[in-house]
Each structure stands twice: as C-alpha cells, then as structure tokens.
Amino acid sequence: MICWGETTLRDLGLENSSIYDGTAEITVSAGRRVVAFLRENGKGAFRLQNEMGEKRNSGNPKRLALKEKIQSLTCGASHIVLVSERGTVFQLNCDETPSIPRLCINDRQVIQVACGDHHTIALSKEGEVFTWGSNSNGQLGLEHVEPSPLTPQPVTLLSGMPLSQISAGGDHSFALSSSGAVFGWGKNNTGQLGLGDMRDRYFPTPVSSLNLKRTVSISCGEEHTAILNKGGLVFTFGSGRYGQLGHNSNRNELRPRLVAELWGSRVTQIACGRHHTLAYVSSSNTIYSFGCGEQGQLGNGQTSNQNVPLLVQLSPELDSDRRVATIIAGGNKSFAMTSPVQGLDGSCSMPHCQEKKICTVDEELINKWISECDSKPWKSLKREITKTFSSASCLNGSFLQSHDKHYLTTMDNPGLDLSLARLAFEKLAKKDRLLTQIGSVVQQRLIPSLWLFPANVEALRVYLILPELLRVLQTQQRELSVAFAAAIFNLSSLHLNVLEGLWSKLPKPFFKTLVKIFHTVSTWYLNQMRTEYTDHWVSVEMTVKVLQKLYEVNYRAGRKIEDSNFYISEMKLFIKSAGRIYPGNYKLLNKIAPFAETLQRLTAYPGIFDMETKNLLFKINNWCVLLGDDHVQPVTKNDLHVNRRSLLTDTLHHLRNSQPNYRWPLKVKFEQEDGIDHGGVSQEFFAIIAREVNCLDPRVFELFEDSRLVWFTPEGHCDHDAFYLLGILCGMALYNFCVVNFHFPLALFKKLLGFPPTLKDLKELSPIEARSLQDVLNEDEDVVEVLDLDFTVKGHEIVPCGRDIPVTKSNRQQYVDAYIDFVFNKSVRGQFEDFLKGFSKGCPNEKWRMFLPEELMAVLTGNVDYEWEELKKNTKYVGYKATDANIQNFWTVFDELSEEQKKHFLCE
User: Fold this and answer.
1) What angle do CA 610, 573, 592 make, to 5 degrees?
2) Which residue ranges contain the repeat RCC (predicted)?
C-alpha cells in the first residue's frame, strides 16, 4: 500500500516504510477527520483528527472490533460504518466516548456502504437502498426534508432498480444502475448533482445528460463528482474551486464535462477526496491527480493546487513485480493498494469486491439450484430462491443484453435478452419443486412489492420477464396472472404508457406469449362463469383489461400479430346460452338475463370480440337503448317524409326543425310512393343522400382527384350547421344498419375513435402529397436544404412563426408531423367537432366505439374488401365474350393495378 497526503503509514500503525509489503490484504477508508484500515483477518483500527488536521488520540490507532469478523469499512467525516461477514451493519461515532459500534441493520445482507460527511447509504444483496444520518439538504433521498433519522430508512423511489453502485459526497448522494443510469440527490449548491442548476434535490433524480454514456463508476468529493464510463472517459462536475474538476480552470460545472486532458488514456478507476481527484490508468500503471494539494494529497511532491491531471510520483520502490490494484481518496488523503502483477486486470482484485453485486438470475445460478435441488438441504435452497425472486431489483438486473448493449437502454429498448429468460425458466420447469417455490415467492412477495412509480425503464423490466415465467407455470398460472394484471394497472398512467411502448417493441414470439397467457386465463374464468355459474368477474376483469391493452398496442404497432389471437370464442357461447336471437325481439333482455350484465361489462374490452360478435352486440345494445326509453310517445318516433326531387333539402329541413327521437328505428316515406319501410327504403334513402351530398355546391367536402376520396372543406362556405347535420345522418345510418358512403378515408374513422392519423392516412387521401413528404424524409441533407421549404401549408403556418422556420434535416420529421396534424386536425377542427357531435346524436348507441377504425368503416360504408376473382367470374359482357382478346387484355391490365387503383376504377 502507498499513501500520501496528511496521513502516513506510521499514523495508521503499520510499517515504517512508504510501501506496505505485508502478505495480508489491507482495506483503507478516509473521511474528513477520520482514517481507518482493515486487515484481511477482519481486524482494524482508526485514528481521529481535529478540524485542523491534528491527531486527537496520540499513540497507536484505536482498535476496531466486533463479535463477528468485519468484512468492510467506510468512513464519513467522523464516523465509521462497519459491515460484518454476514452483511450486518454497525456504526461507530468516533467523537463519542467510549466509541462503541451501534447496530444499524441486521435483517438484510448489506453488500455496499457509502458515507458522506454526516450521512450513510447502504445497498443490500436484494437491491434495496437504505439511508440514515443528516438530512439537511435532502441527501437521504426521502422525498422531503425531515429530521435526521438514526435508523436506516428505505429509499422507496429506487425500488426495483438493479443498482451496481452507491456513492456519497459531503452532503450529496448518487446511485448507479447496472445499465449506466445515474441518479443524484441532496446538496447541489455548486452543481455537484450534474443537473444543470444549483437547486437541492430531496429525492433521487436522473442525471439525463449521462444517459447512454455507459457509466460504470461514480466517486464523490465534498462538493464535486466524477464519473467513469465503460470506454475509460472521465466526466466531472460541481465545484472547481481547487481545480478538482481537471478542466484547467476553477469554474464550477453544472453538468458533466469530459476531462479532455485524460483523453486517450483509458482510465479504469477514479476516486475523489474532499477537494481532489485521482484517476488510474491500468495499461500504464499510472495515477493522475488534480485539485487541492495543500497537504500533499496530489502526490507530486508539491503543496499547491493543480487544475489539470498530472502524474503522481509513485515511490521507486514500487517495482515491476507489483502494480496498483485499487486507488482510494478521502478527506485530504490518498492511497494506492498494490498487489502482485499476476492476476491483475486494472480493476479491484480484493476478494470482497466480487461480493458487492446484487443477486441476479443467470445460467450458473440455475444450474446450481438444479444440481442441489435433491441433495442440498431444501431450507437453505428456499432461502436463496426467496432472496432472488422476491426482489424486482434482482430480476431487473438479470437477462441483460450481451456485449454491453444493455447500456443502450431507452424507452424503446429495455436492454433485455428475453431469450435468456425463456431458456432459464424452461430449464427450471424441469424441476417441479423449484418452479412451485419460485411461483409462490413471486405471488406472495414479489408482485405485492412492485413499486407504483418505477424510477426508469430498468425498473420496468420485471413486467417483461414475468410472462416468461408464467408461460411455464401450470397450476399457479391463473392466480399469478390475475395478481400480475393487478400490478400492471397499479402503475401510474405515465409508467403504464411507457410499458405499453415496451410491449410494442417486443419481438413477435414474446409478444404473442404475453397475449396467449392472458387469453388462456380469461377464457378459463369466463367458461367457469358460463358453465358453473361461479362469480369470477374480478379475475376476468383484470385479465381481459390487460388483453385489451395489448390489443390496442398491437393495433398501434401495425398488427404485430393477427387480431384473432385476442378473440375469445367464449363470448359467442355467452350469447348462445341466452337462446337464439331474433331481430326486433324486444324481450331479448329477459332471455339473456343471466349473462346480460357480464356481456355489458365486457363490451368495455372490445378487443376480445371478433367482427361478427361486435355486430351482434351492437344490435343487442340498440334494442337495450330503445327499451330503456320507456317515456317515448309514438309521435316522437323517428319517421321521415321526403320528396325524391328535393330529398337532401327536405332531410336537412326535417333535422333542423323537428325533434326526432333517434332511439327509435328510422322509417323513411317517399312522398307519392307506396310501400312500408322494412329497411330497404331507408337503405335507398341513404344511397341517394350520399350522391347528393357529394354533388353539393359549394362543397361541404373537398374531393381529392388522385384518390377519389373526400375530406372536410377547410374553409367552406356551407351552412353553419351542415357538418353537424351530416354527422347526424351518418350516425343514423349506423344505428339503423344502413350503408352510407360519402367516400371518407380511414382517417375519419380513426379520428372518431381517438386514433391519430399518420402519413399512411395522408397517402390514402392524397397520394401525391404523401409521396412528397416521404421524399423530404428520405432525401439527403443537402437536397432538403435546396427544397427551400418552411413550416407552412398552402399559406398557413403549421407551427408558430412557421414562415421563419426553414425545413432542415434535423427538423424534417417535425415538419411532416405538423403537416399531417394540420391537414387532419388543425385545419378542420371545428368541422370535425360538429360532425362528431352530430354523429353521436344520430347514433345514441355508444357501443360503436367497440369497433376498430377499419371495422367501423366497413359497417358504415359497406364491405371494403373485394373478391376480385369473383368479380371477374361473375362479370357479364355486352357485345363481347370472356375469351375475346380485348377482354383478356383488359383483365391483364386490371390485375396489374394496385388495390386502391382497382377500387377507384369501380367508382368512376
């Protein structure tokens, strides 16, 4: 061991020489006023100094001793925290007389401890974080300033995080995740939290500027912080008063800044003292120092401050047979622990360093459990299983992507390799005893412990891992699935949205597994309700609610899997159990009474119904709406008398001036024509209405020539209530099972159901415009500049000051998004709102919201899927035969048309 600064080996009571060559390993820690060491045999000692650096206790250092062997120690300003071999934690306040270690934690196995001046952080094997001591600036991370607790308090906002390191400075604290996410809290008067300001934080706050920097180590000084990334780069921030940031200045830095002078030297370790910093480069076995040097803590033979990293002058007695294993800094002291060259890789070689990681599930652990399942005492194995599978942190740190890809964890990439999880659980499934115990622990301990407000994406990994466990469970799958579903919906809406985003990015096999689990469980419970008349509604609601979320995710993701994976055939059996349904049978509710309530509730989750069942439920609910209107008098029924010659005018007049009850079936009567409307007259009425509306002048709808579809006129001069009345007509058609086709694009039905239109929708409505926008997205940067575009569409600014914002490579996606938003939303906001209001009025059955946009479009406008071969077979020719050359040539050309072109041809 080598030491420099205000402490010497003589002060520690070790050897007189500058290098300690004893055979035992030595662990050293130093704070502002105390320095302590620990031998390999678990014995140690400490020495206390006053604020001026003078020794308070003369003679030999005072002994450190516990009834059990000391595994590690960490110093604060004047206190020492000891961790025993069993992971029990004690604190020794050196100012007290007598100095007796006080028990702090004995019900957890603590693997890491970090001390600030007057506060302490502890990390358990299960990934829990505890803090105690001074909380003057929120350094305990307990969300608010409260009296300084003497007993350890859990930092709940880090629950579920797979942490790899904790660190503490003067009055600030840090935590580092296994995938490089950095959280800081506490005092921030000089920017030592790296958050871009100088406001204290009372809870763990992500340092977003370090995202994707692949951080692997953090060290804190009194008011500055240093971080080391996987590539050996060092970033510092906070107080630069003494040059401790290494930026060749004394300026404070509010955000992490690269120490440029260390560029090119692959740093493998960092350590911060009170006002100085050390960096070790293993490839050259050299240490760099910078910052305050008043007590010689920089090791350069001087007592002056240093603003840039310079080499530490290591003792010449450090020959080629020994190298630096670990660097340590604390207070105004610096240490370098040395070891024989053999076996060193530049990281800590101390045996206890390997024990400082939280539990994770990997192949080695699983093989161990399987091999010991029938031989090792079951009680001991159960403890290991419980420790690992009761902790979300442990699972979230498992099955990470290899080759450091997990450091790229984002909202879109959870950093998981789910194939590893699948293989692991399949292997565990070979031992029923193991799998049953794991299932019990997950249900009884893990799921109830899941935190409602995960700190980041890494804490949500458990929600992606657990379905792989549910996949192999047999007897426990149903109960566990219900509990898991409840945990999903206990998440805050913000975090549930993040989870949905992660679901949408899942590879198809894993997404399909997730769907299958909840589909299977939902079907089983529904079958029990139908056949056994048992009440499982709570369980059904939880599982179908998840299934519905997955259905919506699947739709937004462009249908990763077929919709049929979500349909529950049990729904049809529910309806069939009520007896055959006859249209117009108003006593239907009495027939389906045993199942009506369940069916009504389940309509809130339309993803589980196929199209046929949705149509049937829509019809059933129409009758429910009508039968619920007990006070309706016959004179208020929905009867409409019109003249064919003035059909549209008469209809609009009727809607404006009468008060029809839209709950009643529509009955249309053409003047001077006989006949009773049994549905055919109404259908003819809507077919004529559609043609007349599209011929209105001035037009209510704008016709797009290249698609033959219509959209709301942005600046129409039509009657002020035209869109409202046309909305009523469309709603009436839907409610009365009539087809009316105004040639709307799918975008309208998306908007009706709350789905945002996309570039694909613009491509359907206006292919030429859409291609132009796609070209903007695809073009090289130079070409985009040449296009000379700004944020306007047809003279309208689509963002504030749009004329002054040129479209560039960096903002072109924003331009395209704003363009689409303008076409489908902003330019027609009033028109669409009126249409929607009228649509809801004309269709009082709100169950139309069960349909997907494509389904609603098909119901209202007719089947949009054409059987082209059937059309060819059934076509009749006048003056020609099917075998004629002209006919054959026609079909050859027709077959080469796209789907949309074929439809447009038929519309001409």
Assistant:
1) 105
2) 127-179, 180-231, 232-283, 285-340
CATH number at residue 770: 3.30.2160.10
Q: How far apart are CA 800 and CA 858, in angstroms?
A: 38
> 235 with 349, same domain?
yes
Condensed to tens digits (0 to 9), the pLDDT of residues 773-818 reads: 998 888 876 666 667 888 999 889 999 999 999 988 889 899 999 9
Residue 741 located in a structural domain: yes
Regarding whether 386 and 505 lie in a shared domain, the answer is yes
DSSP collapsed to 3 states, 466-489: HHHHHHHCCCCHHHHHHHHHHHHH
Entry pTM: 0.85
H/E stretch holding 236 reads strand 234-238
Name the percent of the chain in helix, strand, coil, to the closest 5. 40, 20, 40
Boundary of a domain, candidates 338, 358, 378: 358
| 662 vs 390: CA distance, rounded Å | 57
Given 794, 824, 854, the domain boundary residue is 824
Q: Please give, one letter per residue, the 3-state secondary structure of 22-87.
A: CCCCEEEEECCCEEEEEECCCCEEEEEECCCCCECCCCCCEEECCCCCEEEEEECCCEEEEEECCC
Bridge partner list, 257: 236
DSSP type of residue 208: G
Taking the C-alpha atoms of residue 684 and residue 11, their distance in angstroms, rounded to an integer, is: 103
pLDDT of residue 99: 76
Domain that holds residue 895: 868-907
User: Is residue 42 a part of any domain in this protein?
Assistant: no
Read off the pLDDT of residues 783-795 as tens digits, 9 standing for 90 and up: 666 678 889 998 8
Same domain, 820 and 831: no
Residue type, 437: Q
Rounded to the nearest angstrom, the gap between the alpha carbon of residue 851 and the centroid of all alpha carbons in its chain is 27
CA distance 697 to 703: 12
Residue 231 has pLDDT above 50, yes or no: yes
- Pair 242, 315 in one domain: yes
What whole-number distance in Å separates Cα of residue 466 and Cα of residue 709?
A: 47
**How many domains are there within the chain?**
5
> How far apart, in Å, do the first and last CA atoms of the chain sit?
90
364 class by beta-carbon count within 10 Å (0-12 exposed, 13-18 middle, 19+ buried): exposed
Q: Residues 739, 854: one domain?
A: yes
CA distance 493 to 444: 25
Distances (CA, A) of 133 to 75, 146, 419, 547: 13, 11, 43, 47
Q: 508-531 and 477-490 helices cross at what angle (nearest 10)? A: 110
3-state secondary structure of 307: strand
Task: For residue 270, give Cα distances in angstroms to 216, 330, 348, 397, 449.
Answer: 10, 12, 12, 24, 35
Residue 49 lies in a domain: no
Is 345 found in the same domain as 283?
yes
Q: Under 8 Å CB-to-CB from 590, ≥6 apart: which residues?
A: none
In this structure, how many other beta carbons lie within 10 angstroms of the beta carbon of residue 46?
24
Q: Note whether 465 and 399 are within 8 A (CB).
A: yes
What are phi and psi for residue 9, nearest 5 degrees? -60, -35
What whole-number distance in Å separates Cα of residue 55 and Cα of residue 58?
A: 6
Could you tell me if residue 410 is inside a domain? yes
- Kindly state the DSSP code that residue 444 receives in the 8-state scheme: I
User: Which of 699, 829, 830, 823 has the alpha carbon at shortest distance from 761?
Assistant: 823
Q: Cα–Cα distance between 292 and 276 in angstroms, integer?
A: 5
CATH of the domain at 849: 3.90.1750.10
Kindly state the helix (H) or strand (E) to which residue 687 belongs, with its residue range. Answer: helix 680-693
Task: Tell me which of 663 and 624 has the higher pLDDT.
Answer: 663
Residues 743 and 776 grouped into a single domain: no
For residues 361 and 54, the answer to whether their CB atoms sit within 8 Å is no
Helix (H, G, I), strand (E, B) or coil at 899: helix
Tokens standing for residue 903: 């439809």
